[in-house]
Amino acid sequence: MKRHADYSLQSCHTFGMEVCAAHFVEYASVEELCEVLSAFRGEWAGMPWLHIGAGSNLLFTSDCYRGVVLHSAIRGMEVVGEDEECVSLRAGAGVVWDELVAHCVSQGWGGVENLSLIPGEVGASAVQNIGAYGVEVADLIEKVETIGVADGKERTFRPTECDYAYRWSIFKGELRGKYIVTHVTYRLQKHPVLHIDYGNVRKELERMGEQPSLESVRRAICNIRNEKLPDPKVLGNAGSFFVNPVVSRSVMERIREDWPEVPYYEAEDGRVKIPAGWLIEQCGWKGRSLGRAAVHDKQALVLVNLGGATGREVVELSRVVAGAVKEKFDIEIHPEVNFIS
Ligand code: EPU
Predict the structure, then answer these.
(1) Residue 305 neighbours by CB under 8 Å, 6+ apart
(2) Of 100, 113, 339, 111, whose CA–CA distance to 225 is shortest?
(3) What is the pLDDT of residue 259?
(4) In 99, 208, 329, 333, which residue has its Cα 20 to 30 A from 188's Cα atom?
(5) Cβ 156 vs Cβ 144: under 8 Å
């Protein structure tokens, strides 16, 4: 187990601000996690804590987090079940998500290829219900193993118990902060069914001159993402800053009267999802900056640190951008990124 005091978090999050934590702990097993949790009943009683993954969905709004930052180094992947159709792959919460995708593709197992290059780790995939290009991880999850924060006891959740929806799970809702994910088991297909009809995946495959396969779809998705999304090592960012708003069909029809080209996707319960990036672009904010924070010039859903921006500058930009969308479209957009003070 690694334990540090006054620890720099700069390499632990992707927005790139210099932030420190009063305490930082990285555990590598369930036993070590239970040991850490027992400290919250002793020396760290009452201390705020924050569990991070790859830090790709965080915005620190001050320069010091006065609590304990936890990170999982539970790694490893193993096949725990297999039948004619599927393979069950169990992975540690600290496995880098894209390494899991690469592994599945190399083994010929389908399901996660459209989620290529999503930053983050396995634990967060189950909390966030990561999704891209028409695929959500909730549809692939078989079980989520956790440890209860209060009692240190193991509890396994089936997907039906996780309350999964677009970018949502019970771990973000009523059980927020109550359980820590240690392992996730995914059900992958031995005879993959490819999803290439979302966005411009098919177009990219055609441009590449390749037949659809697990490998070529993964490469196409990587190309599309690399084209639009900034590399955090070059330009600090946390991927999509806002969640796409899910609105009633009548709201979308109202917008379509003035903007016939409005893109939208079907969502749950007959509602529709309108891309926040499109709304922000129509407000004229794509590529514009406020202080040292900016709206990315290739994908308006992403806010970037131009260099030296503070968390507060990014928060201010997000408020101004959300305000512009509200004023023009009467639609509220909400951050997907977690603000940590
Ligand atoms: N659009 C614009 N202007 C923009 C950005 C987008 O007009 O600046 C339009 C596009 O032309 C397209 C539509 O909006 O018609 C959708 O754009 P895109 O395919 O880029 O997807 P998105 O809805 O903006 C979501 C996810 C992404 C994921 C993509 C692909 C959320 C919050 N974000 O973005 O996830 O990669 O779909 O499926 O749902 C992430 O979580 O960090 C992330 C990048």
Answers:
(1) 15, 16, 17, 235, 236, 237, 292, 293, 314
(2) 113
(3) 97
(4) 208
(5) yes
Atom 26 of ligand 1, nearest CA residue: 132
Hey, what are 62's tokens? 């001050």
Kindly report the backbone phi and psi dihedral angles of residue 220, in degrees, each rounded to the nearest multiple of 5, phi listed first.
-65, -45
pLDDT over threshold 90, residue 141: yes
> Whose C-alpha lies nearest to ligand 1, atom 1?
278
Residues 6+ apart with CB under 8 A from 7: 20, 21, 23, 24, 69
* Mean pLDDT confidence for 281-302: 98
Task: Inform me whether the pLDDT recorded for 169 exceeds 90.
Answer: yes
Please report the pLDDT score of residue 320 as a whole number. Answer: 98
Q: For ligand 1, say whether the CB of 125 is within 6 Å of any of its atoms.
A: no
Pair 178, 150: CB distance under 8 Å? yes
Give the pLDDT of residue 199.
87
The answer to whether the CB of 135 is under 6 A from ligand 1 is no
Residue 167 appears among annotated catalytic residues: yes
* Tokens representing residue 181 in the block: 């994910």
